[in-house]
Write a structure and sequence with these properties.
About 50% of the residues lie in helices and about 10% in strands. The protein is of the alpha+beta class. It has a single domain, classed as Cytochrome P450 (Cytochrome p450), CATH 1.10.630.10. α7 runs parallel beside α19, α10 packs across α11 and α15 crosses α17. The structure holds protoporphyrin IX containing FE (HEM).
């Protein structure tokens, strides 16, 4: 009998707790939506129908007003729908929203302390230290390495295409291979050729990172929504294959470089400079990293691995998807395609017939294409912050409480007709000086404010390089039927459900 009473008491307690949790926004006086127990707005994600970013996009489209309270499973979070308010949160009022609130444990688990997750002054210090790695001078020095990967892309495409006539090429996979090799070489300093050798170590690790197993989903969700729980998992010694493999690879490469005084022009070299000399040189011609003060190791090997892992995660899908979606759009927009090809041709001609770093910078129309792709297909479909100090929403009586997760739907704003006229049409002209026809505050494909993407310049160079290689060596065929990409139900980044098919032929 006592068992039945206990059961009834437990069920009642759970019921009251859930009702209380899912009435948070009502109690705070905020407009809200999607209070479905137990997944809230993530119900479609739990059923495997939508990715996280697309579930938030659905909510963006189904609601009105500048803010909407929602539930990310049991966690109340706030969706910001108004572009100006989003801009204020990211820029003007950054001091109340300076962290992302995801799992990080700098002291006990330094590999978790990537720039994306770090908080407060630790983030600020690391951001200041890493910034000199992303200057245009450093990127220019690394360009030769990227260019070699671009040549492998061209060689591989040549093996896929028939001598005459065209072939439909699946670009998602192709550009993912390009992006993996770009990261392996410019960030980790590894000489891999994933086009020729699909079994290389780096590609193996990258496949581990991009799996979608039950364990990966649980750990991803806990890192993002329940950082306290993730801390427990880590303390209990529940290891993740991909992180362990990356730790090992990074440690091995650091040892190899330090023991043999190897100097290469890549991100790892700059992190070694930071480790051994306390800072990254602002002189773009200095790449050596030997110890300046006896025994100085200002960054542990795990902390280095944490940054490398993050650069991989942040740069891989973003580069691959932005490149493939651009070619997909160009294949449907003959005028834009013709202008992009001409732009590439002229820029190469102006730079002594070479596709070098300066030529890439010179391709203004191609840049506008990349910006338009990044609008219609923001590689990261959401931005997130956590409220770090109670915040009064301007022109309202609403107060966002410290500890509240904030989500901005980038794809929602970027495809909102109120901000971008005719949002589904592909118009690179929007970004050419005289033509800006959109609300600037709503456009933030690389984020905004002090925590915007530190690798934006690098990402754009690598995307433009792949595009310029394809446009100058092959013909992208125009398709007559208009198609829209369907997005898949997995992943943090915006991914096409099937492939990204584009018809390509050799230049005769
Ligand atoms: C087309 C390519 C890329 C796109 C579209 C992109 C987009 C973004 C976005 C939207 C954010 C969040 C910004 C915010 O919250 O305000 C971000 C952050 C970040 N990205 Fe990128 N990214 C790209 C390439 C790269 C590359 C190549 C790297 C590094 C090698 C990189 C490193 C980072 C880092 C470290 C952060 C966190 C910055 C911080 O918290 O201080 N990204 N990126």
């Amino acid at each position: 009998m006592i068992g039945i009473y206990l059961l009834i008491a437990a069920v009642t307690l759970i019921y009251v707790y859930l009702k209380w949790t899912f009435s948070y926004w009502e109690r705070k006086g905020f407009p809200s939506a999607g209070a479905r127990i137990p997944f809230g707005v993530l119900e479609s994600v739990s059923k495997g129908k939508r990715s996280f970013g697309m579930a938030i996009y659905d909510l963006y489209n189904a609601t009105k007003g500048s803010v909407v309270g929602m539930y990310l499973t049991l966690r109340p979070a706030l969706l910001i729908r108004d572009a100006q308010l989003a801009h204020d949160v990211l820029v003007k009022d950054f001091s109340s929203f300076h962290d992302r609130g995801v799992y990080v444990d700098e002291e006990n688990d330094p590999i978790s302390a990537g720039l994306f997750s770090l908080e407060g002054s630790s983030w600020k210090n690391m951001r200041t230290k890493l910034s000199p790695s992303f200057t245009s001078g450093k990127l220019k020095a690394m360009f030769e390495t990227s260019d070699a990967v671009g040549d492998k892309l061209v060689a591989h495409l040549n093996t896929l295409l028939p001598q005459s006539g065209s072939k439909e090429v699946e670009l998602k996979e192709l550009m993912a291979t390009y992006a993996v090799d770009i990261i392996a070489s410019t960030i980790f300093g590894l000489d891999v050729d994933s086009f020729a050798d699909p079994n290389n170590v780096f590609l193996g690790i990258s496949k581990k990172i991009n799996r979608n197993t039950f364990t990966d989903v649980v750990r991803g969700t806990s890192s993002f929504l329940y950082p306290g729980l993730e801390k427990i998992f880590v303390r209990l010694g529940w290891k993740q294959d991909a992180i362990e493999a990356m730790r090992e690879l990074s440690s091995h490469t650091v040892d190899l470089r330090e023991k043999n005084n190897i100097v290469r022009k890549d991100m790892l070299q700059l992190l070694l400079q930071l480790r051994n000399q306390g800072k990254i040189s602002t002189d773009d011609s200095v790449w050596t990293a030997e110890n300046s003060k006896q025994g100085l190791k200002s960054m542990s090997k795990d902390l280095i691995a944490g940054q490398l892992l993050l650069f991989y995660a942040a740069g891989f899908e973003t580069t691959a998807s932005t490149t493939s979606f651009t070619l997909f759009e160009l294949s449907q927009n003959p005028e834009a395609l013709a202008k992009a090809k001409e732009d590439v041709r002229e820029a190469i001609e102006r730079n002594g017939g070479k596709l070098n770093y300066d030529a890439i910078q010179d391709m203004k129309y191609l840049e506008a294409c990349v910006l338009e792709t990044a609008r219609k297909y923001p590689a990261l479909p959401i931005l997130n912050r956590i409220c770090t100090e109670d915040y009064a929403v301007p022109d309202s009586k609403l107060v966002i409480q410290k500890g509240t997760p904030i989500v901005i739907s980038l794809i929602g704003m970027h495809r909102d007709g109120e901000y971008f006229p005719d949002p589904l049409s592909y118009q690179p002209e929007r970004y050419l000086d005289e033509n800006k026809d959109f609300k600037q505050a709503a456009y933030m494909p690389f984020g905004e404010g002090p925590r915007h993407c530190i690798g934006a310049r690098m990402g754009k160079v690598n995307v433009k390089l792949a595009l310029a290689k394809v446009l100058s060596n092959f013909n992208v065929e125009i398709t007559s039927e208009k198609r829209e990409i369907e997005f898949g139900p997995h992943g943090v980044t915006l991914m096409a459900a099937g492939g990204v098919p584009v018809r390509i032929s050799r230049k005769q």
